[in-house]
């Protein structure tokens, strides 16, 4: 644990400013880093969305300067020098596998295609021609159903659309993106409740609200720019209700560097902090709604006029016993009633959540319960209120919008065939975890990954490594090295170096979590060698399917051609066809609800009823574990070993309440083995952490994925990275 003199008592602040200068020195100068950050490109990290044609460090309401450590870290990583050929000759696969995620990220930029063949001890550099010949030759020899295509949310709409089109005209719907391992439960839950799978509000609605529920998330670390909006809510007298098993420093107090008063005095973020057990959210949400019902605070006319299922829903509220709701949430009835009373006074409430809600075996039900609670008081379909999943990757929502799903939306499917004459498969397609299962069994023989770290994002890391290593070929397009390049290597593994977003030779687009489409100008390449994602995909299309019906691959080298296709087939995206000429960034139609007219067939929202699962991990020697990101991390990418806001200096730890240390007969910083029926992690430091409620624990992702089962929410196919039952034994 950090020395007390180093202890951080708030998020942001002067440390964040100092960090900016530190990263500036790494790139050569603060001015050089500032100029890179200010280009007209969308931010590379989270889906809050920044930049675009207003310039970097500007949000959707025009606020400047808006900057966070995550965006600095991503930019500095892309400004690293290249990894030269001698590195590959002297560094073995075994040495790469021994490196931490941070060490791999800091090796430098990938600038040459490299190949590994099973039995070799090293990667070797190869030419682009060799890479294309190998990939196209292998894919041509396989049945399309023997392949899968995986997409990261950091890529552009253009690259995502083109690659899914290539996969489908090749003949497979095994097309999936990283959201299956993060927010797929949000999309499924929202679609089933309000008829649209994204946020129902815009950024300005968040800042107009008078009550914000922040459930199962830690934006102070993972989406820092949202803290400015929460500051505005607090300054107007609004309430911020945080629901999280862990008291996160930045959600208690945050010092926003761009605001002098907040920087000096700090902004109190949470007005109320509720700490249910991990997995207790569903019971808590129903408990709040039950209290509203018992005090006649439910907007019955709204439910009657605008919602289906309201009679069954109200009956379910009556049927729940308080004892069950208290036991399964870990929250007293009186506390649920006090939160309900706060909500009842609100005129404009926003419900936001992240993966603390979706990473459960009942993640879709969690999201539906949030939607239920919002509709209880008519808080969907009016300005300043609504539903707001806090998405991760900067373009994960856009990737999904432009067709990266196993089964295309019927409207896109029909438009592609009718307008362009392409021939598309009609199979259901496999989700990400199902593709991994088929790779392990040998049914799938090749994978193609547009960015990301598929190995690092998977549950049951041991299985993931075995499944990927069973492939004949795995192709990964990346800017830097990650653990997926060192573990689970296929019989033949090829890494293709790609340009960063602000190095693209032609403009690209991205979509924020608020359904706003931005235009990124691209810019000069920093290093020779990497190629545009679109160029790589179009070239592969030429080699693999030169006579594909309806497609001119030469034209597909140009992002303007791809945008024309997107604008003609993707609902709400019509303006994208001319965005490079008009420079007019736009809000997607049909997703923001300011009237209670929903995207369902009959225009009415849907209320869902649930049975609440028992709380897991209640055995004498058990803990409920959630895997988490650190403050120095973005998704699987680890930029810093320390977790500043939790005052931790390393990652090989399990944090638990001091009462649990005592209960398990352990002492602070004692070496332990953390294990369950899925896997085992020896040599872990058990640390007392008063901010997490007893019975619960946290460990860092992706390292702790070795303990996460492959069981997924049956509706969204999202694995349960939270609520993992573990045992801790002294070594």
How would a textbook summarize the main sheet? Answer: 7 strands, mixed
Highest CATH level, the class of the largest domain? Alpha Beta
Mean pLDDT: 95
Determine Rg (CA atoms, Å): 25 Å
Q: What is the helix content?
A: 25-40%
* Euclidean distance between termini CA atoms: 20 Å
Large-scale geometry: globular
Strand content: 15-25%
CATH architecture term of the largest domain: 3-Layer(aba) Sandwich
DSSP E strands, number: 28
Number of domains: 3
Give the oligomer, counting copies of the same chain as homo and different chains as hetero: single chain
Output the CATH topology of the largest domain.
Answer: Rossmann fold
Model regions low in confidence, pLDDT < 50 over at least 5 residues: 1-5
| Helix/sheet category | alpha/beta
Q: How many separate helices?
A: 30
GO molecular function: 4 iron, 4 sulfur cluster binding; formate dehydrogenase (NAD+) activity; molybdenum ion binding; molybdopterin cofactor binding
Pfam family, one: Molydop_binding
InterPro entries: Asp_de-COase-like_dom_sf (IPR009010), MopB_CT_YdeP (IPR037951), MoPterin_dinucl-bd_dom (IPR006657), Mopterin_OxRdtase (IPR006656), Mopterin_OxRdtse_a_bac (IPR010046), Prok_molybdopt-oxidoreductase (IPR050123), YdeP_MopB (IPR041953)
GO biological process, one term: cellular respiration
């Amino acid at each position: 644990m950090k020395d007390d003199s180093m202890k951080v008592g708030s998020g942001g602040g002067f440390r964040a400013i100092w960090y900016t200068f530190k990263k500036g020195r790494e790139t050569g100068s603060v001015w050089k880093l500032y100029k890179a950050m200010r280009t007209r490109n969308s931010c590379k990290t989270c889906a809050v969305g920044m930049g675009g044609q207003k310039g970097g460090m500007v949000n959707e309401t025009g606020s400047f300067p808006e900057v966070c450590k995550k965006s600095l870290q991503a930019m500095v990583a892309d400004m690293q020098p290249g990894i030269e050929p001698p590195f590959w000759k002297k560094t073995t696969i075994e040495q790469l596998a021994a490196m931490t995620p941070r060490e791999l990220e800091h090796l430098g930029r990938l600038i040459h295609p490299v190949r590994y063949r099973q039995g070799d001890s090293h990667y070797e550099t190869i030419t682009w021609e060799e890479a294309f010949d190998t990939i196209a030759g292998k894919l041509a020899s396989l049945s399309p159903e023997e392949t899968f295509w995986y997409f990261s949310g950091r890529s552009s709409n253009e690259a995502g659309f083109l690659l899914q089109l290539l996969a489908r005209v090749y003949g497979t719907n095994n097309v999936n993106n990283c959201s299956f391992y993060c927010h797929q439960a949000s999309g499924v839950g929202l679609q089933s409740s309000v008829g649209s799978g994204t946020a129902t509000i815009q950024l300005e609605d968040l800042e107009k609200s008078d009550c914000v529920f922040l459930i199962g998330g830690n934006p102070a670390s993972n989406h820092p720019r949202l803290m400015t909006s929460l500051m505005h809510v607090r300054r107007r007298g609004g309430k911020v209700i945080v629901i999280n098993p862990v008291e996160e420093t930045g959600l208690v107090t945050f010092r926003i560097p761009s605001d002098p008063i907040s920087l000096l005095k700090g902004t109190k973020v949470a007005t109320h902090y509720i700490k249910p057990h991990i997995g207790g959210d569903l019971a808590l949400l129903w408990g709040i709604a039950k209290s509203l019902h018992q005090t006649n605070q439910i907007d019955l006319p709204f439910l009657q006029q605008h919602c289906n299922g309201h009679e069954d829903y109200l009956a379910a509220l009556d049927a729940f016993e308080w004892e069950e709701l208290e036991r399964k949430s870990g929250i007293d009835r009186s506390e649920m009633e006090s939160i309900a009373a706060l909500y009842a006074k609100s005129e404009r409430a926003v419900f936001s959540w992240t993966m603390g809600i979706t990473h459960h075996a009942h993640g879709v039900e969690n999201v539906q319960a949030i939607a239920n609670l919002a509709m209880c008081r008519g808080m969907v379909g009016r300005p300043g209120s609504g539903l707001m999943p806090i998405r991760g990757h900067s373009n994960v929502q856009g990737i999904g919008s432009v067709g990266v799903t196993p089964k295309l939306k019927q409207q896109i499917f029909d438009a592609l065939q009718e307008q362009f004459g392409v021939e598309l498969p009609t199979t259901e397609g496999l989700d990400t975890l199902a593709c991994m299962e088929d790779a392990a069994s040998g049914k799938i023989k090749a994978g193609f990954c547009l960015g990301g770290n598929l190995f690092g994002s998977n549950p049951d890391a041991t299985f993931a490594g075995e499944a990927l290593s069973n492939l004949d070929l795995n192709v990964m397009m990346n800017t830097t090295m990650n653990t997926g390049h060192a573990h689970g290597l296929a019989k033949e593994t090829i890494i293709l170096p790609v340009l960063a977003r602000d190095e693209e030779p032609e403009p690209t687009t991205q979509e924020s979590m608020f359904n706003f489409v931005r235009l990124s100008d691209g810019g000069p390449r920093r290093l020779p060698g990497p190629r545009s994602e679109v160029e790589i995909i179009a070239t592969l299309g030429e080699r693999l399917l030169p006579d594909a019906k309806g497609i001119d691959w030469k034209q597909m080298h140009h992002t303007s051609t791809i945008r024309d296709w997107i604008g003609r087939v993707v609902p709400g995206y019509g303006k994208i066809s001319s965005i490079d000429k008009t420079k007019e960034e736009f809000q997607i139609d049909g997703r923001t609800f300011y009237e209670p007219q929903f995207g369902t067939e009959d225009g009415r929202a849907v209320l869902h009823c649930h049975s609440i699962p028992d709380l897991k991990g209640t055995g004498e020697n058990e803990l409920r574990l959630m895997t988490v990101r650190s403050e120095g991390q973005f998704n699987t990418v680890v930029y810093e070993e320390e977790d500043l806001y939790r005052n931790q200096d390393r990652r090989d730890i399990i944090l638990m309440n001091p009462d649990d240390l005592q209960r398990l007969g352990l002492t602070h910083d004692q070496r332990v083995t953390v294990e369950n029926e899925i896997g085992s992690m020896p040599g872990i430091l058990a640390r007392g952490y008063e901010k997490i409620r007893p019975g619960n624990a946290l460990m860092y992702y992706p390292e702790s994925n070795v303990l996460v089962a492959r069981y997924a929410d049956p509706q969204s196919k999202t694995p349960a990275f939270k609520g993992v039952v573990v045992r801790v034994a002294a070594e």
